[in-house]
């Protein structure tokens, strides 16, 4: 791809990537956008806006704010943004981005307003692995229908609220989530759209798939289990069809979203594993052993439990077993090396690698008091099960 340089004289600020027919109807309510927890501000015509419950940010200006390189093809049909060692590509008129060779949905196509190109913030969320985020700033106070980031959250008439990153997702009509046999059922297609995940269904309608980046879930309609990549996981109940809408257990989407996706009935409790606060971790009552020898941790380094998963302090446990621990400057990626074997884990992922071979996890890492806790399974795989929990 031949890429344009920043030649404003040649193309001017009127260079058009996407020409939209008709006027764009959009909410004027400003949105707060954050990069590594620092608020990103825009002014004038570059201010972020909401349209159809999707936050749009100025494509070039947002790239500049996070230190990414913004490049546009000669025809203006393709834009490439490079952030650190990752590159995301957007093609004119689509609602998709290509990241590391894979296609990801970004909710809506780009929008042009006052000669400024805007893209759904989802593009930068995917590109930065969540370093770019957003928070609502009064939008729902003026939105009687709720919308993606709030309002009634689909909880009218005794319904069940579903939250993503602490914000309720809105569903209407016959797509409202509900509880069945102790499990929250969510509309398959609509849920995928709300989260920006890719969804697919076989021609006979029996098999469905949902995926984001490198993780994929496959489910057979009516089954009491699903597969995350190659790992089989059980369900308490199966899918249900209501008024022509396929509902599936929310665990199918939680397998991809991790603890960012939670539920509560009539606004109470909730959390990824049901009941309590989504950030509520129980004290560890289990002991960790290495080659039959009990390992002790004190203070903030004591292991914690989330749901049924034990999380251990990564650096401290590596030290206890004589393994080396290395972490990138931004803290996202780490390597633990032990007796010729290497574990690689990226903060927030639900998978890791042992000597390059990928394995799945049931939950993601947690950072507490500047200490990173990761699922004990990483160490068990690294040490060939010399780590035990009793």
Which segments are poorly predicted (pLDDT under 50) over 5 or more consecutive residues? 1-30, 136-158, 265-280
Rg calc: 22 Å
Shape: globular
Largest β sheet strand count, sense and barrel closure: 6 strands, antiparallel
CATH-derived architecture of the largest domain? 2-Layer Sandwich
Q: DSSP helix count?
A: 7
Number of domains: 3
Main sheet strand line-up:
1-6-7-8-9-10
Give the mean pLDDT.
Answer: 77
CATH superfamily of the largest domain, please?
A: Copper amine oxidase-like, N-terminal domain
CATH fold call of the largest domain: Copper Amine Oxidase, Chain A, domain 1
Number of strand segments: 38
Structural class: mainly beta
- Strand residue percentage: 35-45%
Report the CATH C-level class of the largest domain.
Alpha Beta
Q: Cα distance, first to last residue?
A: 56 Å
Would you kindly provide a written description of the structure presented here, covering whatever features stand out?
- The protein is mainly β and 390 residues long.
- The protein folds into three domains: 3-135, Copper amine oxidase-like, N-terminal domain (Copper Amine Oxidase, Chain A, domain 1), CATH 3.30.457.10; 145-265, Copper Amine Oxidase, Chain A, domain 1, CATH 3.30.457; 282-389, Copper amine oxidase-like, N-terminal domain (Copper Amine Oxidase, Chain A, domain 1).
- The strands form nine sheets. Strands 1-6-7-8-9-10 form a six-stranded antiparallel beta sheet.
- The longest helix is centred in the middle third of the chain and has 8 residues, at 188-195.
- Residues 1-30, 136-158 and 265-280 have low confidence and may be disordered.
């Amino acid at each position: 791809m031949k890429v344009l340089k920043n030649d404003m004289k040649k193309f001017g600020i009127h260079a058009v990537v996407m020409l939209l027919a008709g006027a764009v109807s959009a909410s004027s309510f400003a949105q707060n956008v954050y990069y590594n927890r620092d608020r990103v501000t825009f002014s004038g015509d570059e201010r972020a806006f909401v349209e159809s419950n999707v936050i749009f940010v100025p494509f070039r200006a947002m790239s500049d704010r996070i230190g990414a390189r913004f490049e546009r093809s000669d025809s203006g049909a393709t834009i490439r943004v490079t952030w650190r060692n990752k590159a995301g590509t957007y093609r004119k008129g689509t609602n998709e981005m290509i990241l590391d060779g894979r296609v990801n949905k970004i909710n809506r196509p780009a929008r042009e307003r006052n000669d400024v190109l805007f893209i759904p913030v989802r593009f930068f969320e995917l590109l930065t692995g969540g370093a770019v985020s957003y928070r609502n700033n009064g939008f729902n106070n003026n939105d009687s229908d709720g919308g993606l980031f709030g309002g009634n959250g689909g909880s009218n008439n005794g319904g069940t609220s579903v939250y993503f990153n602490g914000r309720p997702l809105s569903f209407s009509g016959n797509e409202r989530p509900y509880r069945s046999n102790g499990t929250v059922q969510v509309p398959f297609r609509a849920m995928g759209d709300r989260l920006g995940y890719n969804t697919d269904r076989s021609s006979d309608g029996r098999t469905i798939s949902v995926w984001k980046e490198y993780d994929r879930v496959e489910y057979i309609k009516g089954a009491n289990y699903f597969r995350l990549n190659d790992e089989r996981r059980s369900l308490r109940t199966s899918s249900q069809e209501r008024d022509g809408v396929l509902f599936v257990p929310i665990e199918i989407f939680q397998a991809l979203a991790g603890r960012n996706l939670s539920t509560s009935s009539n606004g109470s409790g909730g959390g990824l594993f049901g009941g309590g606060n989504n950030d509520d971790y129980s004290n560890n009552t289990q002991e960790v052993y290495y080659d039959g020898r009990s390992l002790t941790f004190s203070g903030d380094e004591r292991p914690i439990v989330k749901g049924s998963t034990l999380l251990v302090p990564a650096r401290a446990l590596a030290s206890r077993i004589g393994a080396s621990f290395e972490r990138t400057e931004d803290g996202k990626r780490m390597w633990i090396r032990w007796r010729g074997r290497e574990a690689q884990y990226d903060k927030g992922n639900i998978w890791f690698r042992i000597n390059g071979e990928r394995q799945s996890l049931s939950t993601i890492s947690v950072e507490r008091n500047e200490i990173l806790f990761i699922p004990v399974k990483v160490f068990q795989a690294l040490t060939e099960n010399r780590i035990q929990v009793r």
